[in-house]
Specification:
Helix 4 (about 85-95) packs parallel to helix 6. The chain folds into two domains: about 5-170, Thermophilic metalloprotease-like (3-Layer(aba) Sandwich), CATH 3.40.1830.10; about 180-405, no CATH class. Strand 15 and strand 16 form a beta hairpin. It is about 35% helix and about 25% strand. The N and C termini lie far apart (about 40 Å). It is an alpha+beta fold. Strands 16-15-12-6-5-20-21-22 form an eight-stranded antiparallel sheet.
Length: about 400
Amino acid sequence: MTEPFDHLLEKYARLVVRVGVNVQPGQHVVVSALPEQADAARAIADEAYRVGASRVEITYNDPFVKRAAVEHGPEELLGTSQEHEFVRARGWKQSRPAMISLTGNPHPTLMDGLDPARLAKAIPIELVQETMPLITTNQVAWTVVGAPTKGWADSVGVSDVTALWDAVATSMRLDEADPVAAWQAHVAKLKDRAAILNEHGFDRVRYRGPGTDLTLGLTPRSRWVGGSVENEAGVEFVPNMPTEEVFVSPDWRRAEGVVRTSAPFFLASMGALVEGLALEVRDGTVTGATAERGEEAVQAQFDLIPRSRHFGEVAIVDADSAVAATGLVYKDMLFDENVGSHIAWGMGYTTAMDDTVGLTPEQRIDEGLNQANTHVDIVIGSPEVQIDGIHADGSTVAVTRGNQFVLTD
C-alpha cells in the first residue's frame, strides 16, 4: 500500500460522505455493511458526524445466518421479514436518510451447494418492495461503494487485502492528489458523454460482437445520464463509486436478438458466480438462457421475480475505465459492471426516463419503464463489440469502436 491505511481510510470515508451521498447538516445516515467491513463503516460514521449528521445507523448483515436459514429453516418463513423491519423501512420515507451500502463479498462460495429454489425464496421480496422505491426514484441520496476484506481479496486472487485496497483506491481515484477534484472532473466527462447521446436522440441502440447481436429500443422519454444525479431535494450525489458508465432506461418492450456476457458476474441474491451467460431475447423478453456456470441460479431468479426477464438499463463504458485499468475480476457487480458496456435485467430507473417519478409502477410499465424487485447488470462489451445508435429513420451512427467512445455532437 502506497500510504498508511488509516490515511487511505480517511480519504475513502471523506469521498463517500462528501461526494458519494453528500451528507447534509442534521441528516440521518444509514450504512449497510457486513461484519468484516466494520473498519470502513466506522470510518464513514466518523466522517458523517464530522460534516454534521444528526444520527448514523449501521446495520450489519451476516451471510452465515442466511445460509443457515436456507439450509435448515422452515420453508414457509424463507424471505419473510419481521414487523420492526417494515417499520424501520417505512420510517425512512419520512426521515429521508443518506443511504450507503458497502459491497465486496468476503464469502463468494458460501452459498454453494444450497438448493437454488430455497435460496431464491430467501430473498425478502416484501421488504425490498418497501425500500427499493426510495432508491430507484432518488427520493434519497444513496451510494454503493466497495469495502475490501481479506475474504474478498482471496476470491479476487490478489496477494492480500492491502493489494485489494490499492486496486479499489485506483478505481475510486483515491490515488489522485485531490480525489474530490478528480471526481468532479470525471463526473463532468460522463455528463458530457450523456449530453452528446441525448443530442442525437437515438431510437434504439445495437450491440454487435462475438455471440452478440442485440438491439434495444428507447422511448421518447429515455434520457442518458452519467456521473452524478440529484435527489428530490436537489442534493447532488453519486449513486455508484466507482462509476464509469453513461446509461439510459430502455423501452422494455423493444429488445430483440442474442447476447453473450464478456465478463463473469456475481449474482449476489443467489450467491452464485455466473460465467458464459447467453440470452435469447424476443419481443422484449428473455426467452432463453444458458451459462457455462451459474445457469441454475439465473433461471431460479427469472422464475421467482416477476418482470425480471425484461431489461431496465443500457450502459456504455469504454477503455478509459479506471476499474478496467486494474485488470481484476472483482466478483462484485459494482466493480465488474464498470469494466465494460453492459445491460441490466429488472428494474429501470426513473432518473433515466423523463417525467416518470410521479407515475405509479403500473403507469411506468405502460410507458416502457420496467419495474421489478431486482436489478442485475451483465457486461457484454469488449474491444470486439461495437455499439451503434440508430435513428428512427434507420440511419446508423457509430458510438463505440474498438472499445473507444467515438460519438461526437
